[in-house]
Amino acid sequence: MILLDGKAYRKELLEEYKKEIEDKKLDITLAIIQIGNEPSSIAYIKNKIKYCDMVGIRTRLHYLGSKTTNEELKILINKLNLDDNITGIILQSPVPKGIDYVSCANLIDPKKDIDGFTKDNIYNLYNNKKGIVPCTPKGVVKLLKHYDIKLAGKTVALLGRGLVAGRPLMLMLENENATVTLCHSKTKNLKAITKEADIVISAVGKPNLITGDMVKEGFIGVDIGLTSVDGKLVGDFDFEAIKDKASYITPSPGGVGPMTISMIIENLIEAKKNKGKNV
Ligand code: NAP
Fold it and tell me: Atom 40 (ligand 1): residue with closest C-alpha?
């Protein structure tokens, strides 16, 4: 079994990004919009600032109170869209209940849309055209390629159709010529699907969802799920029970998470290089 070590790969990638930013004197600033004080939002923001600092990317945090209206948020997004000093914009989720996340995130200039959530970038992904793509699925594909895992012709059981991970990953895997079965909470006989798959990817958020009897010998496993259990983060795989059947498998945490933050940096560098061009 080979561990798909996202943490080790992140270290390599960050060195490459830092060098590129220094060598090409790329002046990059990420604007992060925080609304309210949701603890997980604060933790994600802290992480983004930390890794941007490490590679020489400036961050600007725009804090809006938890009673902010959609109109007020739209005004800030428009202002940041017009600001030439801002390379990329992230509207941090989760946001308070009254905020229409999808509509507001869609107002971000597609060239500054680091999360790849705007209509234009989704349209490009849908049509397999160049554009900014969401960081978690991009990181999954990049990690698999780093380990020379060929996706063309492989069967993939992909669990979870969330907008951040599962659904865009389905498109990216299809763009790589894999054959994808997208599963969700209403899927019947999940085991029959996962057991046949060359690659099993889970983006659900349910610990121990994938057990030893659900995978075939030599399968490749990617665990995107992250759930806090007794203050400790765990993935969707029953890792100990399935690891010996795997040819390659991610740990969780330590697999996909480090790739997500790396792809934020990569998307920022791409946004800087593409400034002014059509996405
Ligand atoms: P989400 O939008 O809530 O999606 C969860 C998906 O799981 C839904 O499509 C749901 O089906 C499906 N599901 C629920 N129970 C299922 C079951 N028993 N079998 C198969 N599918 C089932 O969540 P998300 O934002 O995509 O996140 C999913 C997980 O990935 C979370 O643990 C999150 O923390 C993690 N995550 C990690 C990273 C990272 O960087 N490592 C990034 C993003 C997300 P329905 O559509 O039918 O409800």
Answer: 257
Domain(s) labelled CATH 3.40.50.720 in the chain stretch across 135-257
Q: pLDDT (tens digit, 9 = 90+) per residue, 121-178?
A: 999 999 999 999 999 999 999 999 999 999 999 999 999 999 999 999 999 999 999 9
Judge whether 115 and 268 are in contact, CB under 8 Å: no
H-assigned helices in 56-105: 70-82, 101-105
Please, which residues bridge with residue 233 across strands?
Answer: 228
Q: Whole-prediction pTM value? A: 0.97
Residues with CB under 6 A from ligand 1: 136, 159-162, 164-166, 183-187, 190, 203-206, 209, 224-227, 256-257, 260
- CB-side neighbour CA atoms (13 Å) of 181: 19
Cβ pair 251, 243 in contact under 8 A: no
Q: How far is the CA of 203 from the centre of ligand 1 (A)?
A: 4
Report the pLDDT value the prediction gives residue 274, as an integer from 0 to 100.
86
What is the architecture of the domain spanning 135-257?
A: 3-Layer(aba) Sandwich (3.40)
- 3-class DSSP state of 130: coil
Question: What's the CA-to-centroid distance between 84 and ligand 1, angstroms?
Answer: 36
Q: What is the C-alpha to C-alpha distance for residues 248 and 114, in angstroms, rounded to an integer?
A: 29
Q: Which amino acid is at 188?
A: K
Report domain 25-112's class.
alpha beta
Q: Whose CA is nearest to atom 23 of ligand 1?
A: 162
